[in-house]
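Office hours follow-up: a student asked to see two folded examples consecutively, so here they are.
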Amino acid sequence: MTGVQPPARNDAWVDVLDQAYQVLDARAEASTDSENDPLQSVLLMMDMARRNAAEGDLFQAAHSLTLCESLVQGL
């Protein structure tokens, strides 16, 4: 998501987060050990971010993305 600069419209963030979720979901499904894969936690936080963005709560969406970043650093 680094460098993504969607237009200022709030619904653009929903589209970006939906696309990111789909990419992560495909990777998680391809994982051989999906139950113990840390990507599952990232996927959960990304889902929360996209739902918050869809509700117009970009602050909470940003918080969920911060948690995603912290989880990814551990991978």
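And the second, which I mentioned at the end of office hours:
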Amino acid sequence: MPADLYRSPVPEQLWERIRNEFHLPSLEQVHERLSAIHEDPQPAMRQLARVFMDGGTYCPGYQFEPDLTLNPVVAALFERAMELRIPHNYFALWMMVPSPPLQGTRPVDLRRSGQASLLQATLEQTFMDSAA
């Protein structure tokens, strides 16, 4: 993995990979869907990981469970990413890139495995190393 991966522009192919594998609905589409199932969708909206591209705002589908609740592992990771001031798009990139500390597994593939603390440590390590 290039040392400057998280300092470079996010590759355009990433958005297509997320779209094909997990869906990449617009923020407006997510708001509409959440409004249909929640009386007040704002608490969930505030927790959403978002990506900014082509002048729009999108929400990677890997953060949702089938019932449109937020995956608690992804939500906790994203909250920590915001505390670390990691840009949204780099968080999305990190979720999709095979990680050496995870034996080459992508963080997104572990979001349902109960390994939240390992993922958080890997997130912190990755961005502390890239800041150095």
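Two things to take away from it. Strands lie at 51-53, 56-58. The radius of gyration is 14 Å.
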